[in-house]
Amino acid sequence: MLELRGVTAGYGRAMVLHDVDVSVPAGGAVSIMGHNGAGKSTLLRVATGLIAVRSGQVLLDGEDVTGLRPSARVRRGLGYVPQGQQSFPQMTTLENLQLVSTVQSEIDEVLDTFPALTTLLPRRAGLLSGGQRQQLAIARTLLTKPRMLILDEPTEGIQPNVVAEIERVIADLASRSGMSLLLVEQHVGFALRSTDSYYVLQSGRITGLGDGGEAALDSVREAMAV
């Protein structure tokens, strides 16, 4: 569904990613792990078109989208939830959702996925907790009906009970809808439980990869120690 081939990219003259290959199969869930500064968020920005590649290719559903703008990638089924529980704080929860869709049945569908948001619809997003804002950010992206969903650190700064809820949603999306998922996550156990396979990124290079599941925990820790 999504493939990065030999991608080198960065900011100005400073290259952050070096000849990176990552593949997310259709209907599959893949995690990217690594320490701070490894290049994880940069990789996602390359995939979404927010950063241009210096060399290499980005393919979405077999189509070369390397030169396409982010909006064109969204129209082709790419959804992106960046770090930081982003919302429009002066708008209500409902108004944040209605920015994407005013079709009530579509809003009801995402509220079925995040029922905790139902009672928060009239509340300003800026008054929500971090976990509630993260659920809102994911729900808003789901309204675009993505076939490929990219999540950047969805559990960062989130209370444990909401982390469990987000983990449930990720597993449900992959199994229920056949949606492809790419997850950047520092909580190794969460990432491995939520995905079928993983990559470890260190200093902009892939140092490990394998199948997901908690049995891979030692292999991931070893790769992250390189």
Explain what this protein looks like in three dimensions:
The protein is of the alpha/beta class. The chain has one domain (2-83, 145-224): P-loop containing nucleotide triphosphate hydrolases (Rossmann fold, 3-Layer(aba) Sandwich). Helix content is 34%, strand content 28%. The chain contains 8 helices and 10 strands. The strands form 2 sheets. The protein has a 6-stranded mixed beta sheet, with helices on both faces. The protein has a 4-stranded antiparallel beta sheet with strand order 2-1-4-5, covered by helices on one side. The mean pLDDT is 89.
Layout of secondary structure:
Blueprint (H helix, E strand, L loop, with lengths): L1 E10 L2 E11 L4 E5 L6 H9 L4 E8 L2 E2 L5 H6 L2 E4 L11 H6 L5 H10 L16 H13 L5 E5 L7 H18 L2 E5 L3 H7 L2 E6 L2 E7 L5 H8 L2
Parallel strand pairs: 3-8, 3-9, 6-7, 7-8
Antiparallel strand pairs: 1-2, 1-4, 4-5, 9-10
Mean pLDDT: 89
Range of helix content: 25-40%
The class by helix and strand makeup works out as alpha/beta
Q: So, the CATH homologous superfamily?
A: P-loop containing nucleotide triphosphate hydrolases
Low-pLDDT stretches: none
Q: What is the terminal-to-terminal distance?
A: 29 Å
CATH architecture designation: 3-Layer(aba) Sandwich
Q: Can you give keywords for this protein?
A:
single chain; 226 residues; alpha/beta; Rossmann fold; six-stranded mixed beta sheet; four-stranded antiparallel beta sheet; 8 helices; globular
Describe this structure in a few short sentences:
By secondary structure, this protein is an alpha/beta fold. The protein has eight helices and ten strands.
